[in-house]
Design brief:
Elements (H helix, E strand, L loop, with lengths): L1 E5 L6 H12 L3 E3 H11 L2 H11 L6 H12 L8 E4 L5 H13 L6 E6 L2 H9 L1 E4 L6 E3 L18 E2 L6 H15 L1 H7 L4 E5 L4 H17 L1
Parallel strand pairs: 1-3, 1-4, 2-3, 4-8
Antiparallel strand pairs: 5-6, 5-7
Helix pairs in contact: 1-9, 2-3, 2-4, 3-4, 4-5, 6-7
């Protein structure tokens, strides 16, 4: 299966992508991994991306698209892939369609992980991370430390990262709504969108997604 995974920040895309890719025996292709791999390997696209990033600029769509295209053409992606973090906007979605069409293939589904906005804020803004190198992660609601502000494992001080603050999370949500969410309507017009609730246990969400994808694929 060839799948695109979408959802707001805090929806658990990375976690679900890993489980779904394993269950479906297809590679998990994330934008972050693509950038890291290309930059560390010193590819031409990686050099271009690094130059933009070092200058504090956004990496242009054509560079991201080039990396994704290269990765999707690797042997392990011949029978499918799961894209996580790409496409990020409608122009990238159109470029992806054009690339797949030129290869004689098409997407099977766009899995939309649905999470209420207040839950997203609660999930991200509640994270607390250990200042020690261990970087253990806790959550004030879902996995609180035994002693407030203290890591259970090493006794280090717990803190909230700047990009986990409620204000920052709400800004990230605004960007998601304006830039990425429109791709859901774009793919709905093609009859590809499968929407599931991303609330509950990780294993329950994975099962929900697998069931929905199987139903959609069978149809």
């Amino acid at each position: 299966m060839r799948i695109v995974l979408v959802g707001p920040p805090g929806a658990g895309k990375g976690t679900q992508a890993a489980y779904l890719a394993e269950n479906l025996s297809i590679p998990h292709i994330s934008t972050g991994d693509l950038f890291r791999a290309n930059i560390s390997q010193g590819t031409e696209l990686g050099k271009q991306a690094k130059a933009y990033m070092d200058a504090g600029n956004l990496v242009p769509d054509e560079v991201t698209i080039g990396m994704a295209k290269d990765r999707m053409e690797q042997p392990d992606a011949e029978n499918g892939f799961l894209l996580d973090g790409f496409p990020r906007n409608v122009s990238q979605a159109e470029a992806l369609d054009a690339s797949l069409t030129s290869d004689g293939v098409q997407l099977d589904a766009v899995l939309d992980l649905e999470v209420p906005e207040d839950e997203v804020v609660k999930r991200i803004a509640g994270r607390r991370i250990c200042k020690n190198e261990s970087s253990h992660v806790f959550h004030v609601t879902y996995s609180p430390p035994q002693q407030e502000g203290v890591c259970d494992t090493c006794g280090g001080e717990l803190y909230q990262r700047g990009d986990d603050s409620e204000e920052t999370v709400r800004r990230r949500l605004e960007v998601y709504h304006s830039e990425t969410e429109p791709i859901i309507d774009y793919y709905k017009a093609q009859g590809l969108v499968v929407t599931i609730s991303a609330l509950g246990k990780v294993s329950d969400v994975t099962q929900r997604a697998m069931d929905a994808l199987k139903r959609d694929h069978a149809a």
